[in-house]
Amino acid sequence: MSTERLERAWELLREAYNQQMEGEYDLAVDLYQQSLASHPTAEAFTFLGWTYHFQGKIDQAIEECKKAIAVDPDFGNPYNDIGAYLIEKQQYDLAIPWLEQAITAKRYDSYNYPLYNLGRVFLAQGMLKKAQACFAKALEISPQYTLAREALEEARRKVN
Fold first, then answer.
1. Which residues of 53-66 are buried (b: 16+ CB within 10 A; e: fewer)?
2. Are residues 42 and 66 in contact, defined by beta-carbon separation less than 8 angstroms?
3. Does residue 64 contact residue 93 with C-beta atoms inside 8 Å?
4. Residue 107 forms beta bridges with which residues?
5. DSSP per-residue string spanning 40-104
6. In the beta sheet, which residues pair with residue 75?
7. I need a labelling partner for 38 at 20 to 30 A (CA). Which of 1, 82, 92, 150 fits?
8. 56-85 pLDDT, tens digit each
9. Do 19 and 35 contact (CB within 8 A), yes or no?
10. 10 Å Cβ neighbour count for 147?
């Protein structure tokens, strides 16, 4: 694999991400696919999945995340994303192992997200103490994480 192809893949990924953030999902999909054609990366597969999620294509999003994991099983983002997508589908039990893998992934910058999502699962299942523990741990990692703070308060209200 040439250095030029790898550099081009990352350049396309950055452009795709920018288009995605602008709401240009079709263009982002095309650019992510070009990036993957140049050099497959876990990041491009994961962000392509995220774009499919924004387009309402949840099953396709999950498939792209599985491809990301095949490329780099240490990358935590796709595990969390699959868990979040399964939560959206109200498939809570299926989400748990994916979120647990995200929490233990070697390469992940935001462990607060899978902790928060695991808390959402436990909250939906009525396991309030487990939910509180997850939300509290997410806040330990990221004290400014508003969603985790709000969820922790909601779980506490349900206990009392």
1. beeebbebbbbbbe
2. no
3. no
4. 75
5. --HHHHHHHHHHHHHTT-HHHHHHHHHHHHHH-TTB-HHHHHHHHHHHHTT-HHHHHHHHHHHHH
6. 107
7. 82
8. 999 999 999 999 999 999 999 999 999 999
9. no
10. 16
CA distance 41 to 60: 17
pTM of the model: 0.93
Helix (H, G, I), strand (E, B) or coil at 153: helix
Count of Cβ atoms closer than 10 Å to residue 132 Cβ = 21
Look up tokens 């462990």; give the residue: 111
pLDDT in tens, 26-36: 999 999 999 99
Count Cβ atoms below 10 Å from residue 102 Cβ, excluding itself. 26
- For 4, the token pair is 């030029």
CA 130/CA 121 separation, integer angstroms: 10
